[in-house]
Amino acid sequence: MNGQGLAGIGSAGTDASTLVTDAVVDRVAELLRSAVGLRAEPTLRGRMRRCIRDEIADNGTDSESYLRALTAGSALRQSLLNRITVQETAFFRHPEHFALLEREILPATRRPLSIWSAGCANGQEAYSLAMLLEEQRITGSIIATDISTSALARTDAALYSTREVSGLAPARLERHLSAVGDGWEITPALRTRVSTMHHNLIGPVPSRVRSCQIVFCRNVLIYFSPEHARIFLDRVAQAMPAAWLFLGSSETIWAIGDRYETVRFGDTYAYRPLPGSGTPAAVPRSLPAPSPEAPFRAHARPTPDAATPADHDEAAMIAGLARSGQTELDAGHNAAAVVLFRKWAYLAPQDSLAHLHLGLALEAAADPAAAHRAFSAARRALDLADPAEVEHAIDGYSIAELHKLLDAKQQEPTR
Predict the structure, then answer these.
(1) pTM for this model (two decimals)
(2) What range does the record give for the signal peptide (predicted)?
(3) What is the pLDDT of residues 332-347, one digit of tens each?
């Protein structure tokens, strides 16, 4: 931090890039951490700085005036949140969750059925759930909530580009969407199943969603501070003690696992509050240490010259996660390394090194079953990867050595 004060830092009309000092970013980061639980890790600060710069420019003000207005005004804060929050999602993302829902949970759940899509982004998850209910001829509805009002507006509009629907099977595309101009629109029958609501996940569980039997909150908690993630999950456990909970494949509830039981269905997991979840949660147990030195060092993949600014943002974020995770692992801070490497694997699901490092951290944290899954994911990703890219990233090791390591890791017993 440069420690520079805010007084006199530019004014309207000054080049916006000079307005956003570390001190400004620090104050905004603390405000958003307190208000919505956002964890402003170093990997997010670059994005935050650009969003603040653009907000200052759009409002024609200086940094000091902007900070005062941001602190006092909810409208300005909402505008910043709409810029900062990540709305990357897809139809039927993590298909194993939908397969598990269809095969195991929906048949045993009372009707009418209701599902909470918590952190719904642009609505693809909510409409994927609605498609599943429609196809199974199940009476039910989905409540989609998000902190971003622009994301909720997109969910309500139910209009998606050809790129956004590319993952849908042709039969689903034909059944549930209609071509409109150069995009696609969700059919009215499906839209009636989805309603939206503005909601801050670190606030109380809304009364509207308390009767939901299933909660999808995937790839959201990775952006929360640990204490705010725990607040959310504690409140869900207390307000919805019979609900199934689905988290993203890059997320874990190990830090507050004494409130939930993990239910395994093959290689897929769902969570349920333990009996007596209305009582306060116990203090999380620390995970065991010692950390083995990782055989490979994490390196950032080069970003193509034609990449967009968003691509560069993501590449920088991934590089920061890789470095920070390796530092934590080397220091024996295994739990922190697991969190960072999970985020890396979430942002780069086809990167074999992301899954490898996650597996090593999980192994060090005495979670052999989860480590085995990460090593298996690394092996699958390696089979699909460009050998030249992989060899550049592993810096002096050969792909054959990486294959040998992953094969050995997959054969180790999971206690």
Answers:
(1) 0.66
(2) none
(3) 788 888 888 888 887 8
